[in-house]
Amino acid sequence: VPAKWSCAELGARGDPDPCSAPGEDCRQTKCCSVAQGGSGMTCFEKNENWASCAASCEEGDWSCKALGNRTPYAAGCGWAGKSCADTRLCCNVGFSCVVKDASWTACTQT
């Protein structure tokens, strides 16, 4: 028996990602999407008609002009004093992810 589908909304629609995925033209956004695989990448210009996200760029066929800043690399852990609610891991040695209450979870020294 096939499953029955519902078209009921499950929540509010989020804002679209303002940044570009690797392989897309990023001349307008000037940023690389973490959610679409652009962690640690920069939008590099090839010419006036194309730019794309890459970890590095070698001049030659590309101008390699950086358009915007390098996208931060997602470490997969929280830093000292910062929230670790999503990862439940701390980047700092000697720190643990501690839950104080429903609204506060952070990396603290143990």
How would the blueprint of this fold be written?
Blueprint (H helix, E strand, L loop, with lengths): L41 E6 L2 E5 L10 E2 L28 E7 L2 E6 L1
Q: How is this structure best described in words?
A:
There is one protein chain. With about 110 residues, this protein is mostly beta strands. About 0% of the residues lie in helices and about 25% in strands. The chain is built from no helices and five strands. The protein has strands spanning about 40-45, 50-55, 65, 95-100, 105-110.
Index terms:
three-stranded antiparallel β-sheet; 110 residues; 24% strand; two-stranded antiparallel ribbon; flat; mainly beta; single chain
Q: Kindly, what is the distance between the CA atoms of the first and last residues, rounded to a whole number of angstroms?
A: 54 Å
Order of helices and strands: EEEEE
State which percent range the strand residues make up: 15-25%
Tell me about the largest β-sheet: 3 strands, antiparallel
Query: Helix count?
Result: 0
* Total DSSP E strands: 5
Give the gist of this structure.
The protein contains no helices and five strands. It has 110 residues and is mainly β.
